[in-house]
Amino acid sequence: PESVQPQGFLRAWTRKEECLKAIGGHLFRDLKRFHVTFVPDAPAALLQTTVPGRRAHEWQLCHLEPATDYLGALAVMAPFDAVATYRLLG
């Protein structure tokens, strides 16, 4: 729906960017090599990749909301059960 398109775009962008950082890719050349979930109710996941030697099922994505109006993602090539986040005060 049109009402969630901006949020969906930001989710897709941060998740793809995190996958690129994880493999050391080039931001503008390699974004199309990753297909990720981006619908607000869907869990973060790498659906498909065309990066040689990489398989989507080997990766795990985690959606992060570190603060109000901020989105982030974590991409790792090993399974994990949970991600702990902390807020620094001061």
Q: Keyphrases for this structure?
A:
90 residues, alpha+beta, two-stranded antiparallel sheet, 2 helices, 4 strands, 19% strand
Which range does the strand content fall in? 15-25%
Uncertain spans, ≥5 residues at pLDDT below 50? Answer: none
Shape: globular
Strands, count: 4
What is the helical fraction, as a range of percent?
A: 25-40%
- Give a quick account of the main beta sheet: strands, pairing sense, barrel closure: 2 strands, antiparallel
Rg, nearest Å:
14 Å
Strand order of the largest sheet: 1-2
Tell me the structural class: alpha+beta
Order of helices and strands: HHEEEE
Short account of what is shown:
The chain is built from two helices and four strands, in the order H-H-E-E-E-E. The strands form two sheets. Strands 1-2 form a two-stranded antiparallel sheet.
Describe this structure in words.
The structure is a single chain. It contains 2 helices and 4 strands; from the N terminus they run ααββββ. It is of the alpha+beta class. It has a two-stranded antiparallel sheet. Strands 3-4 form a two-stranded antiparallel ribbon.
Topology record:
Elements: H1 5-23, H2 27-30, E1 34-36, E2 46-49, E3 60-64, E4 72-76
Antiparallel strand pairs: 1-2, 3-4
